[in-house]
Amino acid sequence: MHFLTKSYSEAFPEVPQDSIVDILTWKFFSGVNPGNYWALQNKSPTEIAGGYGILEMPLSGDSKYGLVADVYTTPKYQKRGVFTTIGEAVRGPVTNLGYDFAIGFPIRPNVLPGHIKVGWKEAFTMPVYGSLPIAKALRSFIRRTHKSEYINSREFSEITEDVLKFLEKPNEHSGDQFFVSKKFTSKYVNWRLSRPNAKYTETILKDADGIKAWTISSKVYIKGIPVWAILDMQVDSISTRQTKLLLDNLGRIAVSNMCPIMAGCWNPSYAEHLNIGVKMGFFRIGKQSVIYRLHNNNLSFPAENKVRLSWMDSDTL
């Protein structure tokens, strides 16, 4: 592990060195969420030139999806074909593990050409939607919930039975339209929201009939700016008023955590489904590429309007 963490630190200097072992163990070696990791050695067994990991994604449907994560080449071996070499080397093992698709959320533009070179394709881009939380925070003091409604925010520790029951409601279908979206299980949610050195806030909107909406958010730093990030948002029904109540409450949380920006990332049709847009005070401030590699030639990647993805589906926050 020492040699892996050394090369990982060289490739990702922004990651605190004392947390690398915990992060890699959580992702790939804890045995909670199925994952595999490969390292490309130089002639010396103590020198690692690059790494490549894949995690199982619990998405609906019959296909098996894998999330490719922590792919890197150390600075010493960049521009020497190592990225292409390791990408080709793992193709067979990933296929043998039964994956139909590998999905990636590259955050560095310079790695995209390398992925395309070894057979990856860009599926679509996911806009990053930003909003000024101060306006929402002010509205939250004015706007009132109905007597039967209330909002509760707390630091996430583990998924509760009532929340899990809400998240397990069939949400893959809308009429005859099929959506590829997360399959929520207690095992997956508890693992995903236990990232080392990270804290997540769970916000729940309820009324007399039970839970109406659920979000997971967290304070992160994007390009050095503190941002209150909405990782996921699940709603029972699309109610503009209830969505505003929820987002206004998140605005208060963002302001209290000294975040001048609140942001979320969804594929466009999903954002539209959630009413994320100008009417809710959200504007496009960036984008996130979604790429895939086909491992089953009998299938094709689903169209953007048949997919529901958010930041929680990636591994970066």
Describe the model.
- With 317 residues, the chain is α+β, with helices and mostly antiparallel strands.
- Helices cover 27% and strands 31% of the residues.
- The chain has helices at residues 2-11, 20-29, 82-89, 91-96, 112-117, 133-142, 161-167, 186-192, 240-256, 268-273, and strands at residues 35-41, 48-57, 65-73, 101-104, 121-131, 150-155, 173-174, 177-178, 201-207, 210-222, 225-235, 261-265, 283-294.
- The longest helix has 17 residues, at 240-256.
- The mean pLDDT is 90.
What is the CATH C-level name of the largest domain? Alpha Beta
Enumerate how many helices there are, as a single number: 10
Please indicate the count of domains. 2
Helix percentage range: 25-40%
CATH architecture term of the largest domain:
3-Layer(aba) Sandwich
Order of helices and strands: HHEEEHHEHEHEHEEHEEEHEHE
- Strands of the widest sheet, in order across it, are 1-2-3-4-13-5-12-11-10-9-6
Question: Structural class, judged by helices and strands?
Answer: alpha+beta
Mean pLDDT: 90
CATH homologous superfamily assignment of the largest domain: Gcn5-related N-acetyltransferase (GNAT)
CATH topology of the largest domain: Aminopeptidase
Tertiary shape = globular
Strand content: 25-35%
How would you summarize what this structure contains?
This protein has helices at 2-11, 20-29, 82-89, 91-96, 112-117, 133-142, 161-167, 186-192, 240-256, 268-273, and strands at 35-41, 48-57, 65-73, 101-104, 121-131, 150-155, 173-174, 177-178, 201-207, 210-222, 225-235, 261-265, 283-294.
